[in-house]
Amino acid sequence: MAAPHFQGRYKDREAQSAGLLILAAMLLLPTLFPEKIGVLTSLVPLPVFYYFVSLGKKKGQVFIRNSILLAAGGALITGTLPMMLFSLTLVPLGIALSYGVFQRKSPVATGLIGFLILALTWFVYWFCLAMLHQTNPYTTLLIELDKGLSSGIILYEESAELAPETLASIRRAVELLRDYIPKILPALLISGLLSTAWLNLTLGNWLLRKKALALTPWPEYIKWKLPDPFVWLVVLSGAIFLLLPQPLSTLGLNGLIVCSTVYFFQGLAIAASLLNRWSVPRFIRVLIYALIFIQTYGIIILSFLGMVDVWADFRKLNQALDNRSSSA
Asked: Rounded to whole angstroms, how far apart are CA atoms 216 and 48?
């Protein structure tokens, strides 16, 4: 009778050891190959969130501590410890998402808190880096983006295969980007922070529900919904953008971009709900999601769909149709 008990404990320890290595690898590997897998850093909060909730607060703290120490040892050996500090800035996001589960906050409230924690952590990190190197990271980023666009247009101009009309269109597009990127960069940065928090929140909830439904108080992602009053922020941002002069109109434009990002998350939940109701095969769903993320129009359409859901409530319509079908 004792064998299954010991086998269960052995499997739990084996799973924890695997998780320890996963988090340590996600902290360390992007510092060794930043150009190839640097994007992996954005998923550092995911194992922190998952294991902190599944193991509990006490064991979760030990798990996170040991993973950081293991990764720090590897970074010390490889000489990448300073670079690993940036990966560590995403650990508080995973902890913040975990406390949203422990305190039974809504997914929206938890995501907002996670976004604020990540923004504060990154601000402190970049502020310390700026003080250390006596540089302005924001200005440096603008300069590098402008240099990249300038280099790109030079490459196109040197290409003999492009027609003059095509080259002229590309040149106008690049000049437009060079003009607008400094204006909308704050919105792009905020949208990046929101996307990082949302990605880890949704994936973490999905993993926790797969392990045990009792681990998370949140429903599946297709049922997530923004508070209806949030739409007034879109209206206010649009009014500022259309009616007020510069630089206030730029503030409204940034507000519209941020709101579009948030409503895209809701639009994606609606799309997932519709695909689920229509029983679309998983392979086809993957293709549809890939097209949505690749095509700019797909993102815009889903953002609009998420906004219209305030009045239409597509998921209730789906439920009503299902109820009618069941009654019939």
From this structure: 15
Quick one: residue 158, left, alpha or beta (phi over 0 = left, psi -120 to 50 = alpha)? alpha
Residue 233 belongs to what domain range? 219-328
Q: What is the DSSP letter of 90?
A: T
Residues 228-237 as b/e (b if ≥16 CB within 10 A, e otherwise) read: eeebeebeeb
What single DSSP character describes residue 244? S
b/e per residue 143-157 (b: at least 16 CB within 10 A):
eebeeebeeebeeee
- pTM, whole model, 2 decimals? 0.90
pLDDT at residue 5, rounded to an integer: 44
Separation between Cα atoms, residue 193 and residue 202, nearest integer Å? 14
Q: Is residue 146 part of a domain?
A: no
Instruction: Confirm whether 193 is domain-assigned.
Output: no
Number of domains in the chain: 1
In this prediction, residue 119 has a pLDDT band, given cuts at 50, 70 and 90, of: very high
Tell me if 202 is assigned to some domain.
no
- Sign, CA dihedral 217-93-253-150, equals negative
Query: Within 13 A of 27's CA, how many CA atoms are on the CB side?
Result: 30
Assign 311 a pLDDT band (cuts: 50, 70, 90).
confident
Inter-CA distances, 72 with 69, 78, 88, Å:
5, 10, 10
Inside any domain, residue 195:
no
What is the full DSSP assignment across 112-140?
Answer: HHHHHHHHHHHHHHHHHHHHHHT--HHHH
- Could you tell me the CA-to-CA distances from 220 to 106, 203, 210, 224, 256 in Å, in that order? 12, 10, 10, 7, 27
Give the whole-angstrom CA distance, residue 28 versus residue 47.
14
